[in-house]
């Protein structure tokens, strides 16, 4: 099975942050956030990155759980005070790969294939549920100021402003 087979069979669409996705679940129950917004209690998506695809630095206002399904190892990079945190999703547990990981709410993060070849298919769940109103794609200049210790990483995982 190829990435293109999965994209076709799972009816994945291009995602604004990079890669491909399709929402698979949106809870009927809702709640009110601290900001007074109404959100579904949970959402889930399929997400696929292929070869040199990357999920550019972005953040959301909810915790996000990532679950590895198949393919090549996927590295998630979280920008935290000090040095970035790197988590590798995959099935080689003996070498530190994990089948799931949590990205805390309001954390800048990006993702890419560890070996930059093949594909990785994962699922992501968000609680409270995902809403594009809570999605922020990083601007290179702003992120460079906030994290001056990793300018190469910021440049690699942000889109250039034209």
From TrEMBL:
- Domain DUF985 residues, every copy: 4-138
Write out the transmembrane intervals: none
Q: Note the CDD domains from the entry.
A: cupin_YML079wp
Q: Name one Pfam family in it.
A: Cupin_5
- Can you tell which superkingdom this protein's organism belongs to? Bacteria
InterPro entries tied to this protein: Cupin_DUF985, RmlC-like_jellyroll, RmlC_Cupin_sf, YML079W-like
This chain belongs to the protein called: Cupin domain-containing protein
């Amino acid at each position: 099975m190829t990435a293109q087979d999965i994209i076709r069979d799972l009816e994945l669409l291009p995602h604004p942050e990079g890669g491909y996705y399709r929402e698979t679940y949106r809870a009927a129950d809702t709640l009110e956030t601290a900001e007074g917004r109404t959100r579904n209690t949970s959402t889930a998506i399929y997400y696929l990155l292929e070869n040199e695809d990357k999920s550019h630095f972005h953040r959301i206002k909810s915790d996000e759980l990532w679950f590895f399904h198949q393919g090549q190892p996927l590295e998630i990079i979280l920008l935290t005070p000090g040095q970035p945190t790197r988590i590798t999703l995959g099935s080689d547990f003996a070498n530190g790969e994990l089948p799931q990981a949590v990205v805390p709410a309001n954390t800048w993060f990006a993702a890419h294939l560890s070996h930059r070849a093949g594909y990785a298919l994962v699922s992501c769940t968000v609680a409270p549920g995902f809403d594009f109103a809570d999605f922020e794609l990083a601007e290179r200049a702003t992120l460079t100021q906030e994290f001056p210790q990793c300018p190469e990483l910021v440049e690699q995982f942000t889109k250039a402003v034209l």
